[in-house]
Amino acid sequence: MSRHGSQQRTLFGILESLRPHWRSEASLAGRIDTLISRDRRLGSRDRRLYRELVYTALRYLPWVEPLLDTDPDLAARRIAWLAADIPAVRPFREALAGELPPCPPDADGKAAVLGTSVEDLTPQWLGLECPEALLAPLRDALLCRAPLWLRLQTDHRDLVEAEFASLGWTLSRSPRLPRALGLAAGTDVSRTRAYLDGKVEVQDIGSQLILERVAPAEGGRWLDLCAGAGGKSLQLASLLGPGGRVTARDIRRAALDELALRAARAGLGERIAIGGSTPEGGFDGVLVDAPCSGSGTLRRSPHLRWATAAADIARASGLQGQLLAEGACLVRKGGTLVYATCSLCRSENEEVAGRFLRQSPQFEPVISGLRIAPPDPDGDAFFLASFRRL
Fold it and tell me: 342 catalytic, yes or no?
């Protein structure tokens, strides 16, 4: 068997293991990582190849899945052709799909070559919740991998850029955020000196824009109510400055333990209290970065297109309303309440924020509702609303 024939067989073995789960398991990414990273036959280049091919199959599942049983060679050819143009993929694509024309950047162009339907790529729930996702440019952006974004946590940008240049990495910069640095998707920064010394932190540019837009005053006391592993907690601590303090809470203890490690690495451990108390009178600001459908992360988690249902969004909306009400009780008079999601769904965004305002006359809107979505900036999609307590 040829090398590329062997690679095709390995790919189908991975897909067969994932197939029972890709329309039902929201945490599929962990299963993918386990399957690929624990296969001792695979080197680093092989892992990059199979990860890209698997995620491509998930992005374009309606164009691929029916062929897995009826015409697996055609399925492999489509996956190879649709995959991102990265070095690990190019030999595989040339061997399997070299006779096809160059892959167009837009979904309409791809569909025209393959004789498929673009409409199949947007599930009904997404079209209803976010009609813009049916059309370019948002539709096409959601079908492409997002770059890896970092946030500088040092004033010594030159040291970070010099190290990355020595590794042959090409940086992109954001005109909106001077501290945001973009790298090619899949770049592993975890072993770089810049990362280990806390000079950079992985954080999507859309996520960074939320707190930059809120612009909290230096020296305040803030609560991150759903902190998770703390990307926004770290950014918030930086924005508040040496006199500021962040209290981080989350029901997931493991996530808070990870936040504590990240804070120590960034030199921000003294500014972030894990699970601390509420000050008398309340916090100057409360961030409710609420659990959600994750539909804003479809570029990184394409399986969510097929593993999400309307009932999931309805459940998330109910929880989001509860968390927003809980956070509101902890804001001092004159303080700020921030609501954010990584969702495109109106039921989780505008409807939750609007319902909160109708039920909370003690708050007034500051940012009524802002969607941050690709292709500008070139990251994940987020929603932001903020309120001031009267």
Answer: yes
